[in-house]
Design brief:
alpha/beta; 248 residues; Rossmann fold; two-stranded parallel ribbon; seven-stranded parallel β-sheet
Length: 248
């Protein structure tokens, strides 16, 4: 799955699944641009990649804003001169039952999790098309985008929309040798799930045939494959990484 010579952009790359993806793509030889709302944590990941012999650039950006998505891609081009792989991973949660959910909580989640992916894809496609050498766009969805989840209507709607965006965009750019796929993780061991009470966590585990939560590294491995030449004939697909919890 060598990605030597490739330039990858990972949103939300400062922690959790995004951090693991950034490290894995760098291990496969890609130069990695990673963004987060705050520069310091992203810069820490970039420094680790460089300490391991890779190339990396950290950028502070709020992808919920079109100008920031454009600036993020521009920073990638300024540093590395091209863009081959976009991983739309950035996401936030503002949980609550629909009857109690405020407009601003709905809007904030859709703005980052769905609108942000659209804006970054639009910005990334311009150099990808100009390069005429193909490309990879990989969207990070969620199992709840397929099965739903109580108290997360905004997050579920955004992730379900992301799957639709994946399939539509895949058809639009297939003739230009650009593939677009989604990876939909289930319950993954991250800082976010670490706060789940043990009793609730165990209840979730009983619904997973493999009997455990997944790891961020396992999600990252799937992303690395989709970014590689080995996945050149895969597009418009949703790859579920959930231990058998859900299949479609």
């Amino acid at each position: 799955m060598s990605l030597a010579g490739k330039i990858a952009l990972v949103t939300g790359g400062s922690r959790g699944i995004g951090e693991a993806i950034a490290y894995r793509l760098a291990e496969e030889g890609a130069a990695v641009v990673l963004c987060a709302r705050h520069l310091e944590p992203a810069a820490g990941v970039a420094k680790t990649i460089e300490a391991r012999g890779g190339q990396a650039l950290a950028v502070a950006a709020d992808i919920g804003a079109s100008a920031d998505a454009d600036r993020l891609v521009a920073a990638c081009l300024d540093r590395f001169g091209r863009l081959d792989i976009l991983v739309n991973n950035a996401g936030i949660t503002r949980d609550g039952l629909i009857l109690r959910m405020k407009d601003e909580d709905w809007d904030a989640v859709l703005s980052v999790n769905l609108d942000g992916a659209f804006r970054c894809a639009r910005a990334a496609l311009r150099p990808m098309l100009k390069q005429k050498q193909g490309g990879r766009i990989i969207n990070i969805g969620s199992v709840v985008g397929s099965m739903g989840n109580v108290g997360q209507a905004n997050y579920v709607a955004a992730k379900a929309g992301l799957l639709g965006l994946t399939k539509a965009l895949a058809r639009e750019v297939a003739s230009r040798d650009i593939t677009v796929n989604a990876v939909a993780p289930g319950f993954i061991e991250t800082e976010m799930t670490a706060g789940i009470p043990d009793a609730i966590k165990q209840a979730h585990v009983t619904q997973i045939p493999l009997g455990r939560f997944g790891t961020a590294a396992e999600v990252a491995a799937t992303v690395a494959f989709l970014a590689s030449e080995g996945a050149a004939y895969i597009t418009g697909q949703v790859i579920h990484v959930n231990g058998g919890m859900w299949s479609s």
